[in-house]
Design goal:
Length: 382
Amino acid sequence: MSVNQVYINATSAFFPNDPVSNDEMEEYLGYIDGRPSKSKKIVLRNNGIVNRYYALDKNGKSTHTNAQMTALAVRELFKDDPEGLKEIELLSCGTSSPDQVMPSHGVMAHGWLPEAEGIEVVSPSGVCCAGMHAIKFAYLAIKSGEVKKAVATGSERFSGLLVSDVFEEEAQKLKEMEENPFIAFQKDFLRWMLSDGASAFLMSDQPNPDGLSLRIDWIEGVSYANEMETCMYMGGEKQENGTLKGFMDYTPEEIMNKSIFSIKQDITLLSNNIVHLGGKKIKEIMDKKGLSADDVDYFLPHISSDFFKSKIYDLVEYYGGGIPYEKWFINLYTVGNVGAASVYLMINELFHSGRLKKGERLLLLVPESARFSYMYAMLTVV
């Protein structure tokens, strides 16, 4: 049985409103307990981010939903050919911040695209890897011949979870930062890293007749949840024994007082494991496919903070022969950490940069700290 080649024919991005500088962040997100954050400067110094985007105005009011941003990114793919929306057979949408638990994020985005008519829609859940899972579902559908044209998206609207109102009930507890700064990093530090936005890929079984396309050579993933406990979570609370207690097992009062729906991360678990586990799988994949660092022209790693850049560099050198920084392409510093959309946004910016040449290869790495999952892919410029 023959299988199809799969190509990314077009890429797009949508960012809500104007970029927000470091000095403006709390004008949008608000102050916890009426005071500037004690962790903000430390986190920003480590993550290197200078701009990000919020689907908020300065009164903390939402300007866009996640589904709306996703649909606007999809529309951007077809700005020169609006009728092309009718040719989509599959919409595959990854996010970690849907606007609601039900219905799924994908069908809500589809609802903003009535021209797309009745099509198959899928919504991979998760965190940063959700965007790559969306690409892989579309990739497999096209590769198998089930569909000829698909759109994959990655998007996030974190800002609604970062506003001070979400944390106000814990304001007194956060005062403990003066005695125990670690508390700030458990529940406050992600406020200074996350960003809103959406990106979309048009994928098909044929390359563009004119201009460049990106052929997807392979996509692979791995989860280490079999050996690792939860690290990043929302809608639950981590227990002393390492298990996660979900929101359905809390009373409404507990949900408010414990800020169950704020995003939290176990920093110690993260820093001790996120890099070396990702490097381990790179080694396995490169060996299996007979590849070396010399076969990579561009390395696009999704990193949540500049803090991890040198650590990933050292690990890739240890496991795979090393990829020099001049081959790296990262836009974290100008767009922020957009979770499931981050790898899309890197590819989109590079695709439209004018730098790519036929035959060049792009290696993608997307780590997800939630319970330590990773996605990898190789693209070739054609």
